[in-house]
Structure formats: structure tokens, C-alpha cells
Amino acid sequence: MLKTAIVAARDRQRLQEIAGILIGFGVNKVVDRLGLRGIPRLAWRSAPAVDLTRLSQPERLRRAIEALGPTFIKLGQVLASRADLLAPQWTEELGKLHDQVAPLPWEVIRPQLEADLGAPPSEIFSEFDVNPIASASIAQVYRARLETGEEVIVKVRRPGLQKVIEADLRLLSHATRIVESEWPEMARYRPTEQMRHISNGLREELDLNNEGRNCEMLAALFADREDVVFPKIYWDYTSERVLVQEFIHGIPPTDTKRLEEAGLDRVLLAQRGVDAFLHMALIEGVFHADPHPGNLLAMTGNRVGFIDFGIVGRLSQRRRSQLLILIGAMLKEDADGLMAVLLDWTGASNPDLTRLEAASQAFVTRHNGTTLNLGLVLTDFMTMARENDLAMPTDLAILFKGLVTADGVMRQLDPNFDLFAAAGPTVRRTMRAQFSLKDLKGRFQGLAAGLYGAASELPTLVHLMLVRLKQGRVTVEIELKGMDKLTRGIERAAARVAVGLVVAAFATQLAPRLMEHGTPAFVTIGILVLTIGIGWILLLARNR
């Protein structure tokens, strides 16, 4: 019987729905490996009204994911960016997943919104349009105006969504453990770790308070810049299921006609947009993780507006330094440096270095002497990792997805856009910051503090060891390779010594006494024993 059904008995109805959709779309490999065919058919949905024979396996999976709802859509969107995990035919198909769904009727949204606001929207807002301007799998967005005159958008989480998502996350977390046990070749891709990251991200996205906090955090990083704009959050009306923020007037970067009519400089907008994104990632270590065309706006004065902060990425200082090294290796066409960064990132302990070295050199050769298209370069880089059985860390995969998306948006603004060239000023500022005297002084101070801490603990450790020595309670564990062989050698040597002692004792003590008695039988036995003993010693010496 299916282990998942036992472990997730509380989510049995949702499990039946998932099984029915997957089987209905013919995603047979996943169904069989997870044992979903054993699920009772009571709650199965009917087969989809499409001809599955005309769909490839990637297409079937993509359609099944869309039918499964927001949790699986988010999972599919993450996998679509993981060229280090999936082959191109899968990432390309999953890249077609969209997060736009049919809006729920106002009658379904209104009771929850009134409960969260504490009053009907008509009493909170001077204007409120009940027709949503956007509808996604997590929330719907409405346009409104506060009593004080500010134009705002009101983002409302879909009712009943959290229960379904929590059930999905529990089932998927258990499924990843099954994958690791049933598909040992997948263990190196750390599916449990990947799923944990997706779960954390979805739970953060469900709480709209987090989106408001993320927006204010990023806005604070650009408080002294007028060319980058973030919306104001109205906390008096914001809660876990409702977000009220400033409505930003801008033009999507894909709307070329409106950009031209507004007289905006698309080249300058692209430069400012990528400069802001790289400033977040390389200098501040926190960045907008989904900078697609719907989340970036071109504004008057050639300003760039960022919206939708449900997901943000974070990079440690070490990761940021590694990213700079990677960019440097690419620009210098340094295959060895590229390979070193890849090994450091993936943590692989036993890769085929000859094969990886050849792949790194081929990568450098492919992108040598051309204007670097970041999207293609990073996708190719992750493909190289996959073909060498290496998996990228989750935080870097999110950054790469953001960079690829941002590169695509900037190329829509400026077809000749070169992100590597545009990154130059930010990279130089970052390098100066990381290797300035102030930064180096800080690092040395940190190192000195660490050494001081270790030195301060040394007397305590020595005292403890002396006490244990006095008490006879010090245990030493030593592991020596080849100990079995050494033991057998000692045993053979001991046997030879023992036999030698017996023979010597016989020859020097017992044999003369027997000969003194002149008993022929004893003399014969003594000579025979002496001969056998000498022969045994010679044999042991020969076989050592």
C-alpha cells in the first residue's frame, strides 16, 4: 500500500485529487514511482478533454501542473529555471507555465475582505473597483482610492488557499523523501533541500505582511536615489490576507509604442534597471527574485519602478564574492577559474575532473569573442553543471533565474543590451568596497576576534584534559588503514616465536636428557619433533 497515503492520511482527499489529475494527464512515470495507482478512485477527477496522444511528456506534465493549482505552479516555475537539473525540453515547456488564473467572483472575495478590513470597502475607500485588474494563483488585485485621495492597489489573498497549499506542501515534502529512496541517482540534486526552500518561499508569499516588509526593506536601500521607485505601503489596512500599497503609474517595458510616445530613453532605462538589480544582489545581498516585465515599470523621468515583492532572494557575502569571481572568469575566458567556482558551488567531492575540465574549456570557447548574452551564458553554464552531474545551490539558482529574467526584460528595452558591460560600474564599486582598507580592516578584526576567542578557551580545555588524565578517563580513538593486515602479521610472528621457543627448549633441555637414558624410542621421537619444529619455522618464514 502507498506509504504516502499512510503518512498523509489527514490529506487523503487532496492526495486523491493529485493522483487523479496526474493519471488523467498520463504522467505515468511519476505516478508509478510514487505508487499513486494504489489510491482509491473515489475522488478522482475525470480524464482531461484533450487528446493525450498528441502531447509530449513535458506537455502532459505542464498541463497537469496547471490543473493542480498554485503550489505546483510555483514548483514548476522554479524547475523551469533549473537547467542544471532538467533537460532543455522540460525547462522550455515548464517555462510556459503562467500564474494568471480566472478571477474569483466579487461575492466570494467580499466577505473575507470585509473581515480583514473590519468594515465594508465602501467605508474604507472613497473609490473601489470590484473588477480585478490582475488575478494570480495566490491573490487578486483591485484598484481603489483612499479617503485622503491617494491611489492604491488592494491585493487580496484567495479564500481557502492556505489549507490547500499546506496539504500540498506536506505531501510534496514526503514525496521528495520517496524520490531520494526510489531514485538514488537524484539524491545528488538534494530534492529534500530544494523542496524545503520552495515550502519556505510559498509560506512567506502567503503572508502579505511579508511582501510589505520586503518592499520597505528594498526601498530603504535606494532612499537616496530618485531614479529607482518603490511603492508606499499603507500598514493601517495591511494584514496577512490584504496588502494595500501605492498605485505606481508606469509603462511595461514590453509596450514599445507607449514608451516611444512617452519619449522615454529605453537604453538609459535598461542601464538603470540592471544597475538597481545588481546593486541589490552584489552589494546588499538581497534582491527582487522575479523581475519579469509585469513587475518592472518605466516611469516619467526615465525612472524604474519595482512592484510585487512576494519573493526576494538573499546572498551571503561569500556567495557574492564567488559570483564576482565567476563573472571575472567568464570575462577573462579562464576555464580553470570557471571549473574551480563550479566545484566550490556544488560541493562535489568526486567529480570526473578530466571531463569537467574539457566541458569548462568548451564553454569558454563557445562564448569567446562574442557579445555575451547573459541569459544564454547562464543557461549554458547550468546545462554544463547538469551534464557533469552537479547541482547548483538553491540561492544561486534563484539569482540566476532573476538575472536571466532581468536580462530578457532589458533586451526588450534595448535589443543591443549587454548585461556584462552594463554590470561594469556595479562590479567595480563592489570590488572597491570588498577590498577597501576599511573592509580589510574589518575582516582582520573578525579574524583576530575569532583567534582571541579560541585562545581564551585554550586554558579551560587544557585544564579539563589534565583533570581527565588524573581520573584516567581520557579515551583515544585511532583509526589505521590496513589494521587487519597488520594484526595478521603480528599473529604469524607470535606463532613463529612460540614454535621457536618450544623447539629450542626441546633441543637444549629435553633432547640431551632423553639421549642420556639411551632409550631408542625416545631418541627417535625427539629427533622427529625437532625436525618438524624446524620445518614449521621455515615454512612460516617463507609465507610471511
UniProtKB/TrEMBL annotation:
- What CDD domains would the database entry show? ABC1_ADCK3-like (cd05121)
Asked if S-adenosyl-L-methionine is a keyword of the record, the answer is no
* Domain of life of the organism encoding this protein: Bacteria
Q: Where is the Protein kinase domain?
A: 127-486
Write the record's keywords in alphabetical order, separated by commas.
Membrane, Transmembrane, Transmembrane helix
Q: Which PROSITE patterns match?
A: PROTEIN_KINASE_DOM
Regions crossing the membrane? 493-515, 521-541
Record-stated family: Belongs to the protein kinase superfamily. ADCK protein kinase family.
Protein name as it appears in the record: Protein kinase domain-containing protein
Native species of this protein?
Answer: Methylobacterium crusticola
